[in-house]
Design goal:
The complex is a heterodimer of chains A (about 80) and B (about 270). Chain A is mainly α and about 80 residues long. Helix content of chain A is about 80%, strand content about 0%. Chain B is mostly helical. Chain B has a domain of about 180 residues. Classes of the chains: A mainly alpha (about 80), B mainly alpha (about 270). At the A-B interface, helix 3 of A face helix 6 and helix 10 of B.
């Protein structure tokens, strides 16, 4: 595999992870985690673990993002307690 | 308190990095895993189980216990969501109905709801008109997604994939239907009871296959004992046993994904969803 591609993927993974922690909006954080999962899936595929990459793409980037968004929809901007 | 938390994280990170140094390099042929375990699987998988995809045979055959309890963990996750969210709460104070011929929306209170009416259509509180393009496109795509899910489950022996991935894709197709239409339509087609039954059935298929091996006088989850029922010799029986187990995993994962989505998106009420 071309090492430049690996480097770009790794840098993007770290950026996504930091942004998901730092961003103040929960919906953005959920979507950033989805992007992080998808980039992780690419990283697994680069390392030759195709089965793990497939699982990451379906579970991490697909369904768990939907679950996070569904949960975020039931929160409010300010806490009630 | 904030400083303490940051210090803890820093300490954990430093410890992780220090111990990660001790790990063998990626793809190192001298590492213990590459000298003891991997050669056995690479050399014997084909003659032991007749499955070309080594990962599938390791997951479902050599480490069958691990996958069985993984399926149980997923079932537990679904049950936890159910027990935490689905409590009988106060009834929703009002509902919105749309009078189809005139397009007028009515807010109804009390128990006087027009049930099974041809002219009144139930609406969510945060209703946005369903986009014709989106709903039709999703209807068009969903059958293909489901066939692809079945392919992933059935073709796990030869290509990446298997019960978990296929099950998640299958569940995602129903979730897509629930998002593109509404939650009640989806529940009408795939009810919560079905989801609960299927999720338990999937784990039962897996554990039942293992128990059946016990009945035939072999150890738990040794599918070669099933040769008399599945046909073929003992090697092919292991291959078929893996398929049976993968189907069980797929059924459980599909149902649990849908079940969790129903509970999460409607906060346990299963009435008005996303």
């Amino acid at each position: 595999m071309i090492w430049q591609v690996e480097l770009i993927i790794l840098i993007l993974i770290i950026i996504c992870a930091f942004a998901a922690i730092k961003v103040r909006d929960l919906l953005s954080a959920a979507l950033l985690l989805g992007a992080y999962s998808f980039l992780m899936c690419l990283a697994w595929a680069v390392m030759g673990a195709v089965d793990v990459a497939f699982t990451e793409a379906t579970v991490g980037a697909g369904v768990s993002t939907v679950f996070c968004v569904a949960a975020v929809f039931h929160t409010t901007r300010r806490t009630k307690d | 308190m904030k400083i303490l938390g940051k210090l803890t994280i820093l300490l954990c990170g430093v410890l992780l990095m220090v111990f990660a140094m001790e790990f063998p390099n990626w793809g190192d042929p001298e590492s213990p895993a590459s000298t003891h375990l991997s050669p056995y699987f690479i050399q014997h998988t084909m003659e032991d189980t007749a499955v070309p995809n080594i990962v599938t045979s390791v997951l479902a055959d050599y480490r069958g216990y691990d996958t069985m309890f993984e399926t149980t963990v997923i079932l537990t996750a679904g049950l936890a969501c159910f027990l935490l969210l689905r409590i009988e709460r106060k009834k929703i104070p009002h509902r919105y109905y749309r009078h189809e011929p005139t397009g007028v929306t009515l807010r109804m209170e009390g128990e006087k709801y027009p049930k099974n009416s041809a002219v009144f259509q139930r609406m969510d509180a945060n209703w946005v008109p369903y986009d014709f393009v989106i709903s039709r496109t999703c209807r068009l795509i969903i059958p293909f997604i489901q066939i692809f899910a079945l392919y992933v489950v059935a073709h796990g022996h030869h290509s990446p994939g298997g019960g978990f991935q296929g099950g998640v894709i299958m569940g995602a197709s129903v979730i897509l239907f629930a998002i593109s239409h509404n939650l009640r339509t989806s529940i009408k087609n795939f009810s919560e009871k079905t989801a609960a039954l299927f999720s338990v059935t999937g784990v039962f298929i897996y554990a039942g296959t293992g128990a059946l091996c016990l009945l035939f006088g072999e150890v738990f989850l040794n599918y070669s004992a099933l040769a008399p029922i599945l046909g073929g010799d003992r090697v092919m029986a292991r291959s078929h046993g893996i398929l049976v187990v993968e189907i069980g995993v797929a059924v459980a994962v599909t149902a649990v994904m849908i079940w969790i989505y129903y509970n999460l998106s409607s906060a346990g009420k299963q009435d008005e969803g996303l």
